[in-house]
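Protocol step 4 of 6: record predicted structures for both targets in the notebook before any analysis. Target 1:
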Amino acid sequence: MRRRELVAALPAALSAGCTIGGDPPVPAGDEFRLTLPGHGDRTVPERYTCDGAGDSPPLRIEGVPERAESVAIVGEWLRGYTPQTIWLLWGLPAADPFELPAGLPSEGRLDSPAGARQGTNGEGTIGYRSPCHETADNQGYRFIAFALPDRLGLDPGSDRDAFDDTLNVERSTVSSTTLSVRYERFPEERTA
């Protein structure tokens, strides 16, 4: 969390016009996209939250650039200036389209999709941490998909700092895309 805390301490004026804390850049004309199938309103269904089964959501990845060899996904809870990591997943195939099934097990190494790995979320557990905000604010979540020129050489269970370091130091990203969603957990969120 060290890098994200440092960035959070920067005054907003310094980050004007850049992507710190915002969506990752996507090259113009890029068709790379991430969707939550069947949920065009971008609301997380209860099944994928702490009020439901807490299963990881199904995601559809499309428009993967030809130069990509793998895809990685980061899930974040957008609370304040420092997003909390709710999911780290890498080693996904660069198939186009690719359907990630719901309900992945909370294990570092996954049998399916073959070669996929999960890291440690902000709560210190491996795998998906379902949305579960405790107040009517901070209902925003996002999933960021990175198209990578190779596979990340990370051990299963690696944390966000190791993920970020490997992503930024060892390779460049071919492309990235963001899916912003919300979980309307409280009645006052639905009327706001």
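Target 2:
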Amino acid sequence: MISLTLPDIKDFTSHLLLKDSFDSFCFIEGEIVTFNTFRIDGFIQKDFFDTDTELPEYSYWKNVRDYCFQIIRGKRTPLSFRFVFSLSPKNIGRLIRQNVPSIRPDDVQGLYLNLHFDGTHLTCVTGTSFKTFILDKSLEHIWDEMVKKFFHQKGIIFEQM
């Protein structure tokens, strides 16, 4: 787990809300505080759909990004927001196969990005969650490095705390 400060709030929120930078991440949950508090659960309600197609457990950010943008946009900065993203199950499997083949992808609950804006500061905290107890911390370290590499590739400025 690492904590990153994102000093260029305007640029980061552009990546978050206007660009496709985070679209392939699963959206776990979010909260936006403007004139009201808006809470969004990313868990897909499968009974809503008339399909036999296998649906993911969580929405992808690309499917809820515009809704969140509609809540945030305007002349006034939100009082706060927080979003929790996870690397998609497919990408978790790929990351494990390439780096830590001793860990089974089914044992990983999620590799998370926890984004929090408190009105003045924006931070990102990484997280790793397993379904079972695992002593091996190599996946956690690989995920932390991958997040920093991802931000660097996207041109997102960050400072490690």
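Step 5 preliminary note on target 2. Residues 3-160 form one domain. The first helix runs from residue 9 to 17.
Proceed to step 6 after PI sign-off.
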